[in-house]
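Quick note —
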Amino acid sequence: MTPADRRQNLARIGEIAHVAARHGFGYVFGRTPPGHGPSGATDPPGTRGPRVRAMLDELGPTFVKFGQLLSTRPDVVPPDILVELRGLQDDARPEPVARIRAVIESELGRPVEEVFAEFDDTPIAAASIGQVHRAVLEDGTEVVVKVQRPDAERRITADLGLLEQVAKIAKDRVRRLAFIDVVALVEEFGRSIRRELDYRVEARNAEAFARNFAGEDGVDVPHIHWPLTTPRVLVMEHLGGTSLAHLDLESWTPDDRRRLADRISRAWMAMVFDHGVFHADPHPANILVRGPEHIGLIDFGMVGHLSARDREAAVRLLADVVDLDAEAIPRRLRALGVRYPKQREQDLADELQVVLQRHAGRSMGELDARALLGEVFETVYRLQIVLPARWVMLDKALATLAGVALQVSPDFNVFETARPYAYRLIADRFRPDRIAGRLRADAEGYLHAFRDYPFQIAELLEQLKDGEVELTIHQHDLPRAIERAESGANRLMLTMLSLALLVSSALVGTLIDTGPQLIGFAAAALPAAVAGFALAAWVVVGIARSGRW
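Predicted structure written out below.
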């Protein structure tokens, strides 16, 4: 890093600290006490979430995208902040069209006029990484062209470095972040946003969704034009319809609104329960409405994956929630890959019992999905339990979906839509071909284990012979155990010394006939006898005081 870059980074960190202080978070940088603004006045209660959102908005696009990532982590972000972060929008000022055209020509190696018969210089959307333009191919096909900003990679790399420094400062100075690996969160964000810098990843995701919905008349996915797609340019089919974010729902009848909410919900339930690949951002801007039972999906940059085992475990967890079986839920969470100390399991079961009792007596159709999920994840946050990434993405997707469905049809319940998919998944487990498949997979696993067993034993013996095996023993309360062992060893040594003194004094007292005598024993043996009895008494008193016999 050059001196100029260092000066620029220091100036930017200073700017971040100033913005944080203006929104009441200057204590992270040592500028103000916790909960106080720059004037020293205490901030009103209940304003923390809006202040975090306003701060990220002011810091710029990269910080907004980081806030969007945090909005998918209900296990590490407090609920009041989570609600606000989910409202962050990745909007940005459009890039001058000359620079956008330069990116297209650099990526495709031809002038824009040779690639497209028509190219609309006015973008239809602009975000932090790129912007979208309408265009027409030479054969008359209408397409949309997603183009990366010229300096996106350089700017994001610089901001990631600053975010990492800010995360380290926050980790050291904010005690509430002790259980959160903030630096790891920034690294996770870095991996996520770098994937977004390669538009071919989004193109492959779109193709996967197109295959999954190939037989579904009511869900459209844009076709990718691969000859014109590069890491910085993505050309795809233009889908007709109106963005759900701009749809005039007031002009729709209640029945049509309910049919639309059902169509959107069924699309996501098919992704989660049938396909195992789900669109992780069901925001209204990513859903195009072509009719009450006909939608189109766009923007496949954020996608989650669930294995067949994950989906089955999730259905069993859902059944336990509906049955209010709080004792079984911690075991189900472990099956989903959630890890927490074993001693916290009862605390988790007790907390979940309280949550589930508030929803007792309701059928699946009457359950408030958003409220129940919110309370469960509030409990997870309070107990400082970290969830696997795939499940926090699913939670965010389902919570957003529930909000969208309620926006479309206020009396709609997402859980009611999920029920037939869940029942079908449970029933499918007992199909003969599925049972045969599981038995075959188990048999193959046992066969591989049996085949590899002799080689693993041989390798272990070879390592033992070469002295390459290391044993790590984790003993609970090890220092105290060591202290007890040392105390026991000391008492044993004193007991043996006492016994030796008493035996030696008895031998001396009986074998020596000359010199002073006391009660038939030689006086020379008395010091050793007194010392032996004193040591024995000391050991007995020590054992009595410890209470361990």
